[in-house]
Every structure is written in structure tokens, then in C-alpha cells.
Amino acid sequence: MTEIKDLLSGMNTVVRPDGRKVDELRPATITRHFTDVPEGSVLICCGNTRVMCTATFTPGVPRWRKDSGLGWVTAEYAMLPRATAERTDRESVKGKVGGRTHEISRLIGRCLRGVVNMKALGENQIQIDCDVLQADGGTRTASITGAYVALVDALNWAEAHKHIRSAARVLTDSVSAVSVGVIDGTPMLDLPYVEDSKAMTDMNVAMTGSGKFIEIQGTAEHRPFDRDELNTLLDLATKGNRELQAIQQAALAKD
Amino acid sequence: MTEIKDLLSGMNTVVRPDGRKVDELRPATITRHFTDVPEGSVLICCGNTRVMCTATFTPGVPRWRKDSGLGWVTAEYAMLPRATAERTDRESVKGKVGGRTHEISRLIGRCLRGVVNMKALGENQIQIDCDVLQADGGTRTASITGAYVALVDALNWAEAHKHIRSAARVLTDSVSAVSVGVIDGTPMLDLPYVEDSKAMTDMNVAMTGSGKFIEIQGTAEHRPFDRDELNTLLDLATKGNRELQAIQQAALAKD
Amino acid sequence: MTEIKDLLSGMNTVVRPDGRKVDELRPATITRHFTDVPEGSVLICCGNTRVMCTATFTPGVPRWRKDSGLGWVTAEYAMLPRATAERTDRESVKGKVGGRTHEISRLIGRCLRGVVNMKALGENQIQIDCDVLQADGGTRTASITGAYVALVDALNWAEAHKHIRSAARVLTDSVSAVSVGVIDGTPMLDLPYVEDSKAMTDMNVAMTGSGKFIEIQGTAEHRPFDRDELNTLLDLATKGNRELQAIQQAALAKD
Amino acid sequence: MTEIKDLLSGMNTVVRPDGRKVDELRPATITRHFTDVPEGSVLICCGNTRVMCTATFTPGVPRWRKDSGLGWVTAEYAMLPRATAERTDRESVKGKVGGRTHEISRLIGRCLRGVVNMKALGENQIQIDCDVLQADGGTRTASITGAYVALVDALNWAEAHKHIRSAARVLTDSVSAVSVGVIDGTPMLDLPYVEDSKAMTDMNVAMTGSGKFIEIQGTAEHRPFDRDELNTLLDLATKGNRELQAIQQAALAKD
Amino acid sequence: MTEIKDLLSGMNTVVRPDGRKVDELRPATITRHFTDVPEGSVLICCGNTRVMCTATFTPGVPRWRKDSGLGWVTAEYAMLPRATAERTDRESVKGKVGGRTHEISRLIGRCLRGVVNMKALGENQIQIDCDVLQADGGTRTASITGAYVALVDALNWAEAHKHIRSAARVLTDSVSAVSVGVIDGTPMLDLPYVEDSKAMTDMNVAMTGSGKFIEIQGTAEHRPFDRDELNTLLDLATKGNRELQAIQQAALAKD
Amino acid sequence: MTEIKDLLSGMNTVVRPDGRKVDELRPATITRHFTDVPEGSVLICCGNTRVMCTATFTPGVPRWRKDSGLGWVTAEYAMLPRATAERTDRESVKGKVGGRTHEISRLIGRCLRGVVNMKALGENQIQIDCDVLQADGGTRTASITGAYVALVDALNWAEAHKHIRSAARVLTDSVSAVSVGVIDGTPMLDLPYVEDSKAMTDMNVAMTGSGKFIEIQGTAEHRPFDRDELNTLLDLATKGNRELQAIQQAALAKD
């Protein structure tokens, strides 16, 4: 990571509200078997952001996928009403799923499908549910990182229960995600809410364990960014994802 | 409680799947400050049932209540999709709140309003959210018992922040709830899912700390019950609520 | 009923707005064959409350019940917009069924299922519709009482049309329901709207012809009640249901 | 009406299922004060079709009409689930109002607005509700005919309660409606369901007491009609409306 | 058309905002193959009103029509949000289809079914979509006129692709529609928005190429009309439809 | 663009289905004043993809933005039912906006807000509507490119009508967007549907006239991509956007 250090050399004097360095992740923990019933059940905490990720394995696929020989992975994201500082109305009560929820659910689904061999999964479905218990920025990236671990547990369960031949063959790689952004001109890693709301550029980057990109979503509603800034942000994201993947592996190594 | 002992004398030989006696509660714990943001945030575990209960204090009341000088307390109940053995579709995705959810949300709201002096609360609103993380029977009664503790925390917060003069004056009493039922002819206390699904008669009883009833909901879709059975069930519920109220008080005594 | 007389001795001096005694039902009438088309069609009037109850018999059961050998009974309750003093918006126009409607529909369904032998019904479905033409308190209990008569007519129709072997074998008992409540400290039977809105405790009690309970829903949002009050209320409800069942039988005896 | 007799001379030998002549209305009755609460409440029976029509008078108008000095009249039509031979699912449960319901509600509203002087009504609103208790063809025309009588009662109530100066000034005319159609080449008046479902051409005609048209809705999905047939149908409709208006006047003459 | 000239002789001095005579259509053009993908795709312009009409041919029919040997034709109408002077909210965003949309969709469907032989169509479905790009009065009648041409193209496509034996046998006639109305006492043909909004009587008339009526929808919310006015309006509509049918034929004659 | 030529040197032998080179845009045209009523109305054609983009200027902002001194820009995207090879059901009929629609509407809104100075816009709102008349890949990027031109027209209208002081001051830059992707290992510019559905990696890139990024959305559900591929894709997108911006400027230069 020496190259990032150089790139960011001038930035390290920046003081972040929580005392972190610009290229430093918030403390992250992953708790497996958070609840007892689902095939995979994970609590991921990234700073004060806490997301419960479950993976449900079901033999069979939706109708449009029948007789294809291929499996399916899908995801739904939601926030509990009081995950946020001000209570958010329930989408079930409003009667419709909002645009932001839709957008994030689709993102999570794509990221996980990006590391799944659908043929090896066979005609089985995995449904990921990411429910945010507490939100402090980066809920979508924490969801992806936690969901991957729940997915592994669900596949191992399916292997143990003879629904699939080999969990290892289904997984082509691992995946994690992290947010990066530019605040007052300084690129930073892993933004909590207080920084996220001030970011001029905001980017979510999902990467595989082998260091490739699955999703890059950069948005600069408040100030466009140039190629150099992009490169710095991608360097930061690469560093962050590498560290998150180590935490994923450590969690999965425990029994 | 000597009279229950007598009434139930013949029943104590019954073996319940989890080894409990017929008049024994499942282990129950109440964790306050489960999340950081809400004015009240409680995790209640009753056996394997786990519910997160938050209380949101908001100055002001809904429009229909304006200028009445009275406050308002309302509640919403929901299950996370994988709280259950089989995944349940999200009501937000289905686009409507189901009948069972409506029924339970209304029950929780009535029980809490039953111990609140709306005049002392003034024109302020408390919104209770009960989200079931894991369901193993008795989710609605656990919600009531946990929500009361979250309510107390929210009122203490409101007193500390000068929104109300005195939390103690708002609360006219405490409230807890427990389920009882008749299984294979035997009345039992605090039914987990495996028992609940076999119960001929099922009753949820919410009681105040002073031992009075706020709600009795007895239903006997599968076999009507007579006055004697009713009395035994109410005795069991009285015993269970007394014990749950001790757990509530112990949790509130901690700082 | 001598014991009620004693219990209530001090209460009989209370003057109710409509001149009734505390343990006196409103005049109740049940008109069968109110409309021509349904298998069962009943108009029930309890004081000024008027509910049209129809029972629709359909061979076959919903998909989740297929191949079980069991039948199904379900109910829907609704109010016409101008059943009430102020016009209520239609739920069809609002686009969703409200919590109160859901709660009552489910209550009616459970009460009727409580007296039906699903095996004897076979794989047939009965749908109960209770539409309130005019509401003056007690609409849910009137719905149950009227729906039972419509159910009997529908079963007799099904027997006559050879859909079931014997209506008598399907019915394990009869069912009626009545409201009771505590007003200004006095327990009373069968509350019209003017009393219902002042009741501190409000209880709906559904009982079988053999005097057992199918549902007890007591709610005391405004003042908790103790065991003695509960017992008095149940005595009143027993008296009221006995009288309503006589009216049901008389209606069914007519051709 | 001699000219119709001539036009139809050859047709009078046609035997209709219920024995009527081609230019004969079904027996029609109008019962005022059918329920007690609404400002206007009418039960209209046209043969086996029975519709409950209520008129709700409310001071004030919807927001878009404020400060116009003008009133508003609107209507909603609905069928009870078991008004029909096969049970129809409730639109409240389906979560949306169907196209047919929308179309009819709008038709009823236009017809009544066609005889109301909005300036004389002042900033007051009348909401018409037409709920079909039993459907046997012609429910929309029966709704219009019955709703007019409910409207008159509501306006008289409003005059008596000093909400408007004069009911007579608000009403510019009376209105009724009837269906006509061509069956097997023969034009006929007032079609019950059995005829309506066979009609090649189907027309609903709303007319004022002074014999003018407010709405003509002719539809010939199954066989186009020519100008001569149109004229015969309009003659029949004129005759039918004249008779219905006599029934309206007779009902309004009673106290 | 000499008879209309006489009837209208006194009216021809009326100056319309766009300089037309009272019995004169707005310039109308029909462009086939407006988009490439649909089986039929037409842009119809009637003055400033522009509607895109597509016809989708699909083998097979909806479930309720299966095994009948008959085809089905259905239509949906919608306005783009900025077809109107003030932007209209999308019905997809509001979550429900409005009454006006429902009413018009049903009208278009009936008109087209009125010229289709369902037996000759066989078990195939045609879905008409009419999307208003710009609205200046008469959008529903322009939709019908344009949709007929799209329908012909779709049927010719189906014949060429061997889905049906003969497009000519499916079509029993052609159909077009035009609006007429009474403005300040003067009957007029083909009303743009500025006239439509002032019309006391408003009528939409769909006619076949052989001069018969398929739909007449006359509404006189603002002033009833008598038989003479009706006859004049029908004469105007006949003239307008004859001219529109010539434009349809000319468009279809081009390759 | 010499550097792209080099990077792509080996790729230029690839034959695309429509004969284009890998770094070649489809023919693109922008027609202003496509309809007469909106403040901005544009038809953009990119190959066979055709989108109608309107911009509605409304004085005032939504409630949550009031008294901020800032304006607001929002967007809605939709497809006509027969824009696609198989007809797509209308979201208005389904009763909810789908996830894809939500995602794209939000993307378009962010891109346009990225070049708008909300302070200079003042408390005024611009609503962008992008309705896809025909879809052949790249509908979201064509929407952004077309919507920018509609936005400029609407701002010029607002300046001419004195709603804003200066359109030029509101616009901080221009914006266009284009899709790029990797097909069979080859990065390509501007994918039509036939290529898009085979792309392993798919990226939409919105850039300003000054060559900065506003949005990068790269997704690799089917095969992750590395940093080199990313750079090639961004080079292609830069070239494409530069050419689209020339087309935008040419369209805006016309009167």
C-alpha cells in the first residue's frame, strides 16, 4: 500500500471527526450465527452502522428461471424505522418500496451474483435480506460485505444438506464493498453519516478477493471529479476492501 | 401463588418439549440501549423469541389530536423476513400491511396507552416500533413487555430534555404481557411456537404492575373453553406477568 | 340467572340513554333470505345497528388447503360509507384495508371456524361477508350473530345440493356474540355507540350454544379492570348470548 | 306515446323471460329514509336490482373548489360482494377500484350535477353513495334514479338546517335513467341481467323531468346500430324515464 | 352532406378560434410505422393533438378466454406527463389508474372490438396502446381513429406470419371517432381544448365505415340537450367520421 | 484521442453487428421543440433508441425545500409499453414503479443536478420527463443527453419570462452520458440491445462538457473487470461523450 501513502501524503494531516486517518476504515466486526434459524445469519458492524444480513437457501428457482439448470441469487435491503436519527416511516405502511431501497437492493443482488457460478448452484435460490438496525453511513456497502459471509454459510449449509455438491465450486471469488468520497477536496475512505452528507463526490466500490471490480458507483451531484481524483478514490477503495476481506476471512475461519 | 400450585397440582407431571413446568416462563432478558439513536431502545428475549423495541419521542401530535392538550402513543409491529423458519415475504414488497400485523400493532398500542396519562404527556407523541428479529411464539406479548421498558426510557429522556415535566406522572402503572394456552387439555404458561401451533385455546393477557387487566384476548378456534379453564389460564397469566414485571424493574434499575 | 341479578342488584337503578336495564339487550331481529342470490343471506338488527351477512358456498378450497381433506371458512367485514354519522371514506378508494377492518374480519372468521368441523365440511369453502348498513355500536358482535345464521342456511343449501353429506355434522355448535363494558363504574350489556364511546372497559364475548367461550376480547385502554369486574362482565355476556341464541333458533325455525 | 306504439307494433308479440312487453318497465319502488343517519337515504328496487343510495351533505367544498362560491356534487358506486350470482372480490381487498366502477361512479356524478345549480348550492358538497345490494341488470340507471331522490332529501335537510337558502333553487330539474337495448333485433326497455348479457346494443339514457337528455351512452360492441334503431331506443328510453319520474315524484310526495 | 349545410346554415357565420367552420375537421394526418418494433405503430395528429397508437399481436388469449376459439382485443390509454399545459402526475407514481383513464381505455377497447370478428381472429390477442404525446382536445377520439389503422397493420402482420388466415375476414368494418359539442348554443365538430372546456354538451361518436354507430357518449353536465340538438350533433359526427375514414383509407393505401 | 486509437489498436478488426467500429457512436440526432407545450421538449435518437425528453419549469419548490433560496431539479423515466420487442406491462396498471425505473429516474436527476447551480435557479423547480418511445439499448444515457438539451431550453424560457435572471448562470456546465461495455473481452462504445445483453461488464458514464465525471456506474455481474479494462472503458466513454456534446451544442445552436 505504499503507493497510496504517497498519493495521500499531503492528506494525512486532515483531522476526521472520529480521529481516523483519511485511508483508515472504521472498526468493523462480523458476527456469524447472529440468529438461529436462517441458513446464514450475520451481524456486521462498521463503526456505528449495524446491519443484520441473512441468507435463505431454497431448493427451486422462480418460474422464469425454471428448466434452465441455473440458480438465482437476489437481495432485499430495508431500514428499521428507528435506524436513523429521525424516525423513517415504514415502507410497508406507505404501501410502496422507495427508489433508494430499490436501488440498493438491486446493487446488493448484482454484487453477490458477481461471485456466484449459477450453473454450480443448480436450480436453487438464495435470498439475501439486509436489515439495517442502525445507520451511520455506508449501509449499502456494509450490507454487501456482511451478505457475502451469510451467503458462504448458506452454501455450506446447502452442501452439508446435500442440496448442492460443493459450496466452493459455487463461489468463484469473495466480494466486499466500501464507500469512498471527496470531502473539502480530500479523498477519504469509509464515510460515516456526518462525512457522507458533506461529500462532494461519493463512490461505492465492490471488489472481489482477487482485486477486481464488480461494481463502481460514483456520483458527483455536488462537484464533478476528474480522472486523478477517481484514481485516488479507487486506490483508497482497494485498500479498504482488502482489509474488509481479511475480516471476512477471519470470521469465516472461526467455527 | 399457592392457589395456582393447587389448581395445577395434577399438571406438573406434564413434560414440555423444553423441559419447563406448566407454570414456568421461558428465560427472559431485557437489554436496554440496544441501539444508540432512539430515545428508548430495548432488545427483549423470551426463550428464542427476540424483539427489538424502540420508542421515538416527538414533540407535537398528529393533526386530529392538535389543541387537545393530550399526547398520543402508537405502535407498529413487524417481522424481519427471516425471523421465521420459512422466509416471509416483506409487506413493503407486497405493498400492503397484512391483517395479522395490523391486529398486533393495534394491540400493542392499546396496551401502552392503558398505562399513560395523556394529559401529563401533553401534546407529544411516542411511536413504538417492535421488530421481531427471531420468532418462536409469543412475539406480540414480548413486544408489549419490551416496549414498556423502551417507553420508560423515552419518557425519562423527554424529562431530561424538558419536553415533559415528569416521566413518573405520565406513567400511571407498568404493563407486561404473556401468552397462555391449553394444550392437550393442559393449561400452560408462555407458549413457544411448537406448543402454540398445537394449542386448542390461546390467550394473550396484558396486565398492569398492580395486577389489573388491560387486555385479554382469548381465542378458541379449535376447541371452546369453559369458565374454569379461563380462570386457570388467568391465574397462570397473572403469575407470568408478575415475574416479567420483576424482570422489567430489574432492567430499569440498572444504569 | 339469579346470580347476575344479585351481582347487579345495586346497578339496576342506573338509567341508560335508551331506557334499558343494565343487563338488557337491545331489541334484536334476524331476517333470513334478505337477498335472493346468496346461499345464505341475513339482515340482523340490534337496536339501530343493521348488518347484512351473506354466506357464499363454493366447492373447492384455496390452494394452500388443497388435498388436505379439510374445508375452510373465512370472513370479510366492511362498513358502507354512510353507515356512520360522519361519512367514512371507502377503503376501496383509499386503496387499502384499514387495521380495524382487518381485525374485525379476522375475529368473525375465527368465531365461525370455532363451530365448524372442517373434516365434515370437506374441501369446500364458505365466505362470509358482513356489510354494515347502519352502525350504532356492536357491529362486530352483530356480524358474528347474524353470520352464524347465514352459515347455517348456506350449509343447508349445500346439503340440499349434495355438496356435503350433512349440514348438521359440519356444525359442532352454534355461536353468537355480544358486547359488554364498564361505564362510569357500572358493567353493562350490549352497548350502543353513545355508551361504547364512553366505556372505560370494552369486551366482546363470543359463546357457543353450549355456553363455552370462543373469543374473549377485553380491552381497557382507559382504565384497567380487575378480576371481579371481569367476572361480572362475563356473567352479563353469558346472559346476552343466551338470549341472542334463542333469537337465532327462532329465526332458523321459520321456513 | 302513440308514436312508440306504432314503431313497436310488430314487436309486441315478443315474449320476454319475465313476461313483460318490450316497452314495459320492471316494477320499481323507491323507499325513502331507508337508514336513519344520512341526510338522504333511499332504497330503490327495479325488478330484482336493489340499490341503496345515500346523499351526504357537508358544508364546505374540496380544496380545488374553495373560494369559487360554487358547490360540488360527486358520486361513488360499488357492489357488495354477493350482489351477484358469483361472489365478486372486494375492491378494498384488491387494493384498487376497477375500471367499471370508476366509469359508473363518474356517470352518476355527471347526471346529478346536470340538474344542480352550483351557485345556489353555495360552497357545500353533496356526496352520493350507491351501493348495490342485489344486481340484476340496470344497476347504474337505478343508481341515478334513486340517487336523485336521496339528493332531494339531503337538500331539504340542508334547507331546514339553514345550510342553503332554498332546495328548490338548487335543483334546476329532476333526473332519472333507464337502460334500453336491442336483443335479437328487437329494441327493448329496461333490461334485466339475462337480457343485458345477450344485448347486441346497450344504451343508458339519463333524462330530465322536462324530457331533455343529460347522458346518452350507447355501446354496440356486438353489432353496430343505425339511426333508426337509435331513434326507437330513444323513444323507449323517453317512455321509461317518464314513468320512473312519476315514481320519483310519488315517493317524494309522501311524508 | 347537403342536409347538414341546411341545418347549419345559420351557424356558418360563427368564427372559431382557429378559423374553422362549425362543420370542419381540424387537419388530420396518420403516419404508419411510426416506430419499428410493434406489429402496428401509428402516429395520429388531429390539429395539435398527437397520439401514438401501437397494436401488439400475441398468439394466445388471457386465461378466462382459453378454449373458447375466440380472440380478444383490449386497449390502454395514457397521457405522457407533459402532454398537457400543466404537467400531470404519472399514474405509475401515484400508484393507481385514475377514473378518466379507465373510462377512456374501456371506450377504445369496445370500439375496436365492435369491428372485429373474434372467431376469425381465433385464440389470439391484440393489445392496443394509445399514448398521448400532446393533448389539445379529442384525445380519445383520435386514439380510436389511429388505433384502427394500427390494428389493421397488426392483422396484416399476423396474416403474413401465418398466425391468422385472413386479416380481411377478421375485420367486419372500419371504425373512426370524432367529438362534437354545443358551444354557446352552436353545435360544432371536432373540438380543441379551448372549445371543449366551454362546451355545454359534449359528445363522442364512433362510427363504422358503413355509417353505423358503435358508441355514442353524450354528456350534458352543464346544460341538457334536446332531440333536435342531438340530431344535429349526430349529423356533424357523421360528416366528420366520413372524412376521417377517408384519411384512414389513404394512409392504409400507402406502402 | 490518439491514445485510445493505440489502446484499441488490436480491437478495430472486431466486426459489430451494425458494422460500427468499437469506438464509434451510433448515429445520434437531437430534435428540439418536438412537442409545443413544454418549456423544453426534445426527441433524441441514438441508433434505434428514441426518447422524448421534456423539461417543465414551475415557479416554487417542493415543501421540504421552501425558504431555502435554492431550486430543485428532478427526473422521471418511463418506457411506453411497446418500446420493447415484447410488450411491457404499464407500471400504472401494475400499481407500482419498478426497481429499474426508480434506479434510472434517480440517475437522471443526479446527473442534471450535477450541472445546475441551485442558488442561481432560485426557488424554482424543473421536472424532467424521459419517455422511451423505442428502446434499443442505452435508454438511460440517451435520456441524460437529451434531457440536458430540454433543460437548457426550459431555462432559456424561464429567463425570457423573467422567472430567473440568467440561464447561463444556472448552468455550471453541460452534461451527456454514454454506455460502454466489454463484449467477448473487447471494450466497446455505445451498446445497442443485442450487444448490451451479451456484455460481461456494462458501464454508464455521465460527463460534463469540461471532461469531468458526474456519474460512473459500472457493473460486472457476469465477469469482474480490472483497472486496465476500466481505464480503456473510461477512455471510450470520454470519446463518446465528447462527440455527443458536439451534437448537443449543434442542436442548441439552431434556432
Automatic annotation (TrEMBL), chains A, B, C, D, E, F:
Coiled-coil boundaries: none
CDD domains: RNase_PH_bact
SUPFAM superfamilies: Ribonuclease PH domain 2-like, Ribosomal protein S5 domain 2-like
UniProt keyword RNA-binding, yes or no: yes
EC number: 2.7.7.56
Occurrences of domain Exoribonuclease phosphorolytic (ranges): 24-154, 174-240
Enzyme class of the recorded protein, top EC level: transferase
UniProt record similarity statement: Belongs to the RNase PH family.
NCBIfam families, sorted: RNasePH (TIGR01966)
HAMAP family: RNase_PH
The protein's assembly and partners: Homohexameric ring arranged as a trimer of dimers.
Protein name: Ribonuclease PH
Lineage of source species: Bacteria, Bacillati, Actinomycetota, Actinomycetes, Bifidobacteriales
